[in-house]
Amino acid sequence: MSELLTDAELAALQVEVQKEIDKELKAKARTEAKEKLLQQARHERGLSKPVEEVLIDLPPDGNQIRINNRDYSQGHWYTVTADVAIMLRDTMQRAWEHQAQIEGRSKDHFRRQRLTQLGHGGVRNSPQTPGGLRV
């Protein structure tokens, strides 16, 4: 390192560096814990929106959906609030309907092909990921 510092001084500096790193890690852990506690308190008081996992499934010519200046890319899973999940699913459905239209098929061709059913009970017979999770 430096020829001007003795081994003892370098050891003392090393101790200082470790203390600073520990302080940074503790501050980060404190921030994360506080955010988690805030989310829990919001949920308990009914102030938070429910979240859902959504897989972006678009036709071949589609590669992303943009909502509120945030991009959602084809083939990726996202954890989003319920209102964003509704918008994403609606956009994907319309994209598949458009794909069917430009191919000269009925607008529910891809839905029938997958036998996907949308209703008040949720989504049934949706495509599955390789791990077996339902989309």
Q: Care to describe what's here?
A:
The chain starts with 6 loop residues before the first helix and ends in an 11-residue tail after the last strand. The relative contact order is 0.08. The chain has helices at 7-44, 82-102, 109-114; strands spanning 51-55, 64-67, 70-73, 77-81, 117-119, 122-124. It has three helices and six strands. It has 135 residues and is an alpha+beta fold. It folds into two domains: 1-48; 51-124, no CATH class. The longest helix is centred in the N-terminal third of the chain and has 38 residues, at 7-44. The strands form three sheets. Strands 1-4 form a two-stranded antiparallel sheet. Residues 129-135 have low confidence and may be disordered.
Overall number of domains:
2
What is the oligomeric state here? single chain
| Gyration radius from CA atoms, angstroms | 25 Å
Helix share, percent? 40-55%
Q: How confident overall, as mean pLDDT?
A: 82
Largest sheet: 2 strands, antiparallel
Order of strands across the widest beta sheet? Answer: 1-4
What percent strand? 15-25%
Give the distance, in angstroms, between the N- and C-terminal Cα atoms. Answer: 55 Å
Structural class: alpha+beta
**Total number of helical segments?**
3
Number of strands: 6
Q: What is the general shape?
A: elongated
